[in-house]
Amino acid sequence: MSVRTTCAYCGVGCGIVATRTGERAVRIEGDADHPANRGRLCSKGTHLGETVGLDGRLLHPMIGQRRVGWDKALDLVARRFRAAAAEHGPDSVAFYVSGQLLTEDYYVANKLMKGFIGSANIDTNSRLCMSSAVAGHLRAFGEDVVPASYEDMDVADLIVLVGSNTAWCHPVLYQRMRARCAAGARMVVIDPRRTETAEEADLHLRLRPGSDVALMNGLLAWCRDHDALDRDFLRDHVAVPDGFWAQLSDRSDLWSVARACDLAPAELRRFYELFAATPRTVTLFSQGVNQSVTGTDQVNAILNVHLATGRIGKPGAQPFSVTGQPNAMGGREVGGLATTLAAHLDFSPPSRALVQRFWGSPTIAAKPGLKAVDLFRAVEEGRIKALWVMATNPAVSMPDAGRVRDALARCPFVVVSDVVEETDTGRLAHVRLPAAAWGEKDGTVTNSDRTVSRQRAIFPLPGEARPDWWIVAQVARRMGFRTAFAYDRPAEIWREHVRLSTYGNKGERLFSLPGHAAGGNAGYDAMKPSRWGGTPFADKRFPTADGRARLVTVAQKPLAAPLRDWPLLLNTGRYRDQWHSMTRTGLAPRLARHREEPLVELHPDDAATAGVTDGELARVTTPQGETLYRARVTDAQRRGELFVPIHWTDRNASGGRTGRLTRAQVDPFSGQPGFKSCPAAVSAVITAWRGFLLVSGEPARRPDCLWATRVTLATGSLWELAGDSALAPLEACLPAGERIEAADRARGTRRVAVLAEGRLRAALFVTATGELPPRDWLIAQLNAPAAPTLLAGRPPGGAADRGPIVCACFDVALRTITAAIRDQSLANVAAIGAALGAGTNCGSCRPALARLLATETNDAA
Predict the structure, then answer these.
(1) What is the average pLDDT across 798-810?
(2) pTM to 2 decimals?
């Protein structure tokens, strides 16, 4: 039997058809009828079936390291939260939740904290990725409403991507854009890095980080000076602050903007002319805009341009904030952010009275709560006595994560609800509660364009795992709020959420779900994807007191000069095939092969200055801390800038801990951290040896050396290693069994293979000066009868290494592609797809395929 559900990853919200093929096995296909993806899936969604096993799952409530029953765990949580609130006040407790929660989970948690405990100290990890967009929408529109839909991409004539590597981070949406470009639309990418997205753009503006306000103010000034404003719309439907246009004139001429953004005036002019001449323009923005200490101003600079030119509320003419998580939008709708109450209501007295009356609650939060960074600072200072973390890993993902860990370690009472037994945050918890995972959840999510979709269970709940809404409701009942949390199923929570969206709402709020509760439980079970709000602002009315939108005066802040000890700027972001802290994607062998190790990417000039060599280790240091990466030297980086990924944790690497590096400075309006421009330095790391450990299953003990990065395999694990001391500790990582060994003292080389019943169980290869063999053939030998050439690391006769994986969807490697290009005379990316399948699913590898094609063509010429 097939189940229609929704993908667990990014905010695109792709529909999935999941068909169980075993007790914990499932076949995943894209849902051709879902409006978000029309059957397409990216590499992560395609391989969701590899992540549904029970290895590493938290399956029972735990107090410390002791397994307990649900009653004991829930009673303790309720008692400690109730006692803290009674003794120290309701603001002494807090929830930190996640865009991984379903809307029903979010709703119950928000209701308990704000309406019954009486504090607004519930914030979400969505604070880290899209809260600047929320603040910008509120300032411009009066409500947090994303006006665009994916259909706008289908009719736009110009698509502007600002701070978004869409080809990697929202691949299915990106392919929709590329289809429109094939029909004649143009694409402009505004990003300091030359990403895969930028490589396919008609124009790439590699602006200086943090100069987005100058760029957009210059664009608005250009539109004013070249008669591209919609003056009727401005006059009738937009409130313009006094002095707005005079302030805009200051340093917004082409030459001043080009200098501020470090762009050539000619390419800046080309963008401005293209925008002014193309009424149907969608400007899509993401983390590169939001994750800044001036993120809200950057959002409003974009919204100003769209409002002033009338490019809003029209097909193909919209500003579009795309969210990072599958239910970041659902969390915004129910009030999951500390700065909103519920259902897009604020903390004004009328709103508080309305929500308290609807909930029938004994109290209601009087003011906004602590935003994420401030929340963990309050934990550090001892003001938070009890903290509940749900479905997220702040010990990894928060800025200045080392300080966050110290704060968690000192907190009197920490509860973690999660699906994974061992996380960096869970290790610091007093109580761990086993939550339902993606394949077991039942509820709803809302994607980036306001489409509500059902997430349905594929498997029964394993062990003693329970849905997050159930866990929170049970604690609420034990705190004395039994009647208000007497839910038996998520459909009941959904209907209450729907009623609240319409309660007392006479059109003041665009967020409203009339009719979505029809059909009772059966209607909920059969719910089809639907978008709330229609086409916001098509009627040219906005949810403000006077019905007008607002232009917001924003000015470019001075950009800091490089510091003596920290001369570089650190930028952080995602890799194509990984998700957050890899608790899910890290289980999928195919997803591990695209980027096996965390890399620091830096320009050749910066590498030369620091003595860093491509492929060797490098140390990145900031005022907050330091960690190691494998170096990738590339001119895709601007001089003076570094890029590192966010995914690696203590569970899977000794380095790559990006959270240790970033600083806890935030945007003053949104509270969103500035992850994109942290002062940093880089230096070379000299190692005495390097190697790898290949094991069937897991090693007898974790490798203890300078550099150890785990890569998931279908049959076990691969550890990439490097060290600056003796090799002896690595011997303890090998399992018991018959050993065959070889050593070359002159080259400092040692090779060990461990056999059991004639089959390979483990291999350790290290060298001080020599070469290491490719991994693919040895990986294929795990658990197979031992080949006579094991210690050579290659088959008899020698076979070519496949090279790194380029297409994760179909497991197609680099050398397979280059050989096919040469041998079959493949002339374009479509031909590569026809021959090998690469690039024909999510398409996120298409830019890489185009690069390989160009390289091979040039070499042949």
Answers:
(1) 75
(2) 0.95
